[in-house]
């Protein structure tokens, strides 16, 4: 079913009943009625409470069944143990949606989980969509629908705007409402999802994507139980050109522990979330400040930046340098202005620095038009994706103020899609004025640069462009995985990899000494000989591997030695023969792997062999499947890429072939889906440019019976 | 001369003359007089201007000579070209100090540099100390001495306090004054040094160290011309237990370029500044926000934290996790509270998370004493070095407010040295109230954690403990460096390293085939043979090296082949023989190096060989000389240290011997001082624990004639 149609009656209800309606100011059954009345909600409001006649002047009903109307939304503010009974008093088909404020469900352990399951089952049977339980509810700002018991709006409403906000945590949600109000950030919706028995953050992202009044989505995620749904939602937002900024807690070991003890949701492996957000074009914010800075910046400039070149104008050369440091840290370039632009500035301020950062010096306070003229000169070059201005204490100069307003208005009119930040000490009302005219104000210039870098590096997720329907991919790779569980032997593993289009080393399996000699002779070079047994994962440890063998006699000896070593070490292992492959030398050892994340499915890893993986953990991840371009970005994320690029004089490796192989592996992993636990290709050799790659060893482990 | 005595008359003047005194509001000759009068400066004020009778009601003098008194401080606010003439009208001995506001000196090129030199020479002759030129002057907040033309104090004075601030940049200085005022951060002194013709940031740090009213020093540095002076100043502050927080611009390539174009000062190599600040115990801040956050935190808690354990209390589990993420990023630990503490909390709030982060849930707003009780319980364990509390929007709850004030007051009274931060949305007057009661308030909880981490990791610099007088060290290593310039040959280089206490491989130099055979026979193992010539730095490239040679014939062949290869490739090279050393195998290849920084002298580098240095640039630096403890911290800074520690199963290397060697190298480098350009020991082998190290190759390059 289409989320949009279904959730429309929830998020834009024409009628609202409140279970547990109360006249007691501040109670969860009172706050929403007070807010709805005060805000001028135009739909019908039905207080429900058998112990009240009137609530906030409205006639009160004893039960839902006493209301003759159908009801778009029931707000539930009665204790957890009474929720189900109260709902059961409604008529089948009478209620379309419910939001449950009450806590005491899954978040408090087994008894609560049972209550939540009963509620969920009842709602599902009656086709009622559920928000919560244990949530703060939601606000449809434009329609004045305050289905929340958060007292935050009582201290001041925030303006309607185009940012849709969804947060799993209620405490954070209330804080976020206040922060948005303090920043004068207009919201379309504010939604808290709580225990997510039915509707989760992904549903809300999907809904906000389809909402015509929402241009930017801010999502605060604690855990995710349905990875595919989140992928679809992020992909939809991406395709619709609605940027998503997301904060996901539980990034580090300490954080994840805290997250796990806090919610019933799975905190998940953080590298997987990083990959997810990267691939689906969501911007990850690491602090609450950054979450808001980026969200607010996107609401002004939702389009992708034309370039990663930044222009800086400062009245202090030193602080200009500090801003340049920050730009460098965040991979923004500071190309110098063209000669004529520099000359024009120097003609007016001889001791300015006309380079980028442009240091207009304190003179800018004497010749007040210099800031606007220089800004226009810089932006007219078409060279810069954004402009950051630092005015120090001069921001509070009365003489400068009208010029500052003009500067922002004119630049915004001429370059509405170019982010412009002002860093200065300004009183709150002036900050608001400049922000309304089209710029953003940051007291700390480094924060301005950091925020700009986040939106300037933002690109649509590759996955938005991929046809990512499961069917298309699965057809392409019709994988024949032998039945059973546990590891496949090396020969079977390599064959599956080869059939998936991965260049594996030539090999044959011998089951007699004579066959081993024949095979080795055909390779006409020293060979590697390895035991073939699904029961033996660490072949070398038990003498199951011999390398660099040449000559009939040596092959025969090796054959026998391997068999007897293995027989001694693991007499019960099911041995299927000896794999023989030519020895390889040269190239760069890499590692590719796949593991199956319980929430997001197969995840592909890439790294260079040896210390890069073992000591430095220099690896990158992506969710399967992905294309060569994504694989390239994955390879370039590792520190070791300079080794592959041949920057140390040893000649470049075939990075394109590595990327093709990673993409092929990701397709294979996706087609295999949850039939496997992991795939390891270790090592896979990156040969010199143009010569491809060669997988020398591989093992596929099927899912164990659960 | 003692900086303190000399600068006392500058920074606490009893009499001030103003050259260029003016009645025109806002002019640089008017602002200081207006500020001094308004602030109630108690010394004498002498306006000087031949075209005025009275200035701000005070009698005006035609020239300095017209003033019969001696003058502690002359403020110079006349155009650059008139400065010297105006000063020359004073009587010898009449003036003790001058601060020059005027720009148009070294910062504007050659003509200005000449003016500055003339001014400097005159002042030196008359024994006048100079602040500036091209500076904003200074403020002695306690004594109401406003020797500045910055209009910032006109819009509101900041309170007297114990933070001394010195900034090289005037624009930044004015901004910093306003920021301090906005944060209600009390200053003892505010000083801007400008072109630093005489007094520089280091002098001011030294002065602030000796000032009894200053407890914390905030320094903003653009460049440094006298490294030794800065070292001495930082060392003095360190010894006096006065923490220094420093922002140094020009951290990255872009920043350094901007810095160079802005000041006449040398931006310096940033790795050297990092080493300097680390060794001398200064805290480096990377943004203006951090500069102030750390400065303000230090002014509350100047003592070093008792532990790097942090306690977190949050009313939102999710944000608690976010804070835990940040703590993890900054290497703070979050140990769980003892069982009894957990039990007490859970008895009151069954669904709390009593782990660390402690999630008191929204219940904390119902049971209002829970925050204080839990905080006291946590701190009473003695386990935690700091406490961070997150209250979300609840901070603005009227019911909570008295409890919040009590919380901060009680905790501050009981644990005055334990940093406590509150993160909440609060109006400015409440932020001020809580900060005055002893905590710090950060709207963004991640910023709270980051700031805490900076002060909790702060340790006194090692150099404060070292006897770092040049003489002591130089005596210890009386180094016999052969005269001349350029490279020493390998044999001479290794000999110097060996005499300095570094374990070099045994070697001998043969000048005949027979001698070569003798030497090789004595080593009774395969040998390495290398050409000895100061003219040949890259020996392998021209066939000057043969490895793994054994047997008389092979040695003889190798001897002749090396000589003829070298003769062909570099016929003019001065060949001094063939160095013969036993072959080594095993151990881990490391690299040690020294280069001579023009400002800070010899800098020592450490890294692991191969890709660690070449691909990953995984190296660390320290200023010479340093001890074994500092060398250990240097080794542990590299990513590759886990390889040395044997964490990958290959057995630990002799890290202690590596550290001894680095310390010895640093002593040698310090003793050699600017007689050398560089030293390279590459490779030096770290043998297994207890077996020491072995330097296999080394080259010392003497300073070229300049």
From TrEMBL, chains A, B:
Signal peptide start-end: none
Any Pfam family the entry gives: Succ_CoA_lig
Single GO term (MF): ligase activity
InterPro entries noted in UniProt: Acyl-CoA_Synth/Transferase, ATP_grasp_subdomain_1, CoA-bd, NAD(P)-bd_dom_sf, Succ_CoA_lig_flav_dom, Succinyl-CoA_synth-like
Alphabetical list of SMART domains matching this protein: CoA_binding
Residue ranges of domain CoA-binding in the record: 10-105
Keywords attached to this entry: ATP-binding, Ligase, Nucleotide-binding
Record-stated family: In the N-terminal section; belongs to the acetate CoA ligase alpha subunit family.
Protein name, UniProt field: 6-carboxyhexanoate--CoA ligase
């Amino acid at each position: 079913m289409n989320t949009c149609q279904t959730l429309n009656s929830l998020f834009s209800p024409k009628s609202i009943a409140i279970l547990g309606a109360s006249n007691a100011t501040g109670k969860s059954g009172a706050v929403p009625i007070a807010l709805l009345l005060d805000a001028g909600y135009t739909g019908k409001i039905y207080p429900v409470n058998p112990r009240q006649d009137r609530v906030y002047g409205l006639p009160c009903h004893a039960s839902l069944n006493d209301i003759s109307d159908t009801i778009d939304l029931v707000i539930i503010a009665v204790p957890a143990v009474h929720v189900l009974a109260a709902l059961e008093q409604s008529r089948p088909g009478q209620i379309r949606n419910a939001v449950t404020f009450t806590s005491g469900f899954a978040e408090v352990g087994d008894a609560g989980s049972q209550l939540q399951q009963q509620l969920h089952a009842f709602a599902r049977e009656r086709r009622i969509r559920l928000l919560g339980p244990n949530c703060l509810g939601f606000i449809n700002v434009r329609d004045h629908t305050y289905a929340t018991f958060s007292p935050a709006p009582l201290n001041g409403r925030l303006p309607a705007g185009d940012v849709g906000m969804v947060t799993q945590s209620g405490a954070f949600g209330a804080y976020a409402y206040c922060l948005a109000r303090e920043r004068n950030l207009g919201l379309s919706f504010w939604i808290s999802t709580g225990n997510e028995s039915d509707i989760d953050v992904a549903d809300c992202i999907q809904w906000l994507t389809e909402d015509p009044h929402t241009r930017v989505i801010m999502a605060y995620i604690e855990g995710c139980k349905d990875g595919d749904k989140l992928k679809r939602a992020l992909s939809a937002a991406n395709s619709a050109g609605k940027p998503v900024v997301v904060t996901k807690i539980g990034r580090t070991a300490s954080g994840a522990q805290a997250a796990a003890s806090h919610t019933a949701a799975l905190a998940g492996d953080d590298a997987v979330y990083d990959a997810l957000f990267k691939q689906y074009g969501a911007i990850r914010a690491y602090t609450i400040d950054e979450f808001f800075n980026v969200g607010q910046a996107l609401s002004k400039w939702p389009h992708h930046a034309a370039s990663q070149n930044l222009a800086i104008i400062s009245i202090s050369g030193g602080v200009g340098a500090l801003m340049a440091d920050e730009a460098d840290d965040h991979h923004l370039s500071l190309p110098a202005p063209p000669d004529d632009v520099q000359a024009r500035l120097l003609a007016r301020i001889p001791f300015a620095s006309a380079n980028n950062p442009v240091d207009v010096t304190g003179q800018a306070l004497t010749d007040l038009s210099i800031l606007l003229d220089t800004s226009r000169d810089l932006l007219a070059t078409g060279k810069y994706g954004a402009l950051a201005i630092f005015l120090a204490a001069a921001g509070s100069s009365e003489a400068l103020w009208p010029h500052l307003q003009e500067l922002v208005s004119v630049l915004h009119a001429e370059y509405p899609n170019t982010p412009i930040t002002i860093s200065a000490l300004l009183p709150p009302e002036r900050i608001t004025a400049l922000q309304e005219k089209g710029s953003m104000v940051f007291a700390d210039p480094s924060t301005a640069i950091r925020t700009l870098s986040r939106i300037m590096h933002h690109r649509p997720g590759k996955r938005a462009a991929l046809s990512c329907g499961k069917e298309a991919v699965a057809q392409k790779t019709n994988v024949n995985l032998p039945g059973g569980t546990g590891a496949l032997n090396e020969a079977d593993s390599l064959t599956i990899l080869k059939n998936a289009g991965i260049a594996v080393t030539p090999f044959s399996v011998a089951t007699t000494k004579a066959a081993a000699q024949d095979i080795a002779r055909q390779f006409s070079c020293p060979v590697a000989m390895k035991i073939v047994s699904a029961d033996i994962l660490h072949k070398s440890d038990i003498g199951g591997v011999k390398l660099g063998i040449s000559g009939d006699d040596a092959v025969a000896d090796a054959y026998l030695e391997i068999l007897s070593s293995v027989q001694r070490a693991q007499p019960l292992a099911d041995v299927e023969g000896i794999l023989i492959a030519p020895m390889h030398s040269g190239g760069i050892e890499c590692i590719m792997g796949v593991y199956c994340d319980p929430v997001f499915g197969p995840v592909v890893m890439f790294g260079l062999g040896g210390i890069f993986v073992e000591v430095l953990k220099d690896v990158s991840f992506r969710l399967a499947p992905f294309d060569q371009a994504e694989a390239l970005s994955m390879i370039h994320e590792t520190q070791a890429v300079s080794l592959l690029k041949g920057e140390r004089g040893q000649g470049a490796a075939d990075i394109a072939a590595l990327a093709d192989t990673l993409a092929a592996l990701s397709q294979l992993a996706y087609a295999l889906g949850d039939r496997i636990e992991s795939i390891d290709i270790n090592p896979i050799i990156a040969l010199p440019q143009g010569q491809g790659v060669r997988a020398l060893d591989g093992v596929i482990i099927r899912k164990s019976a659960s």
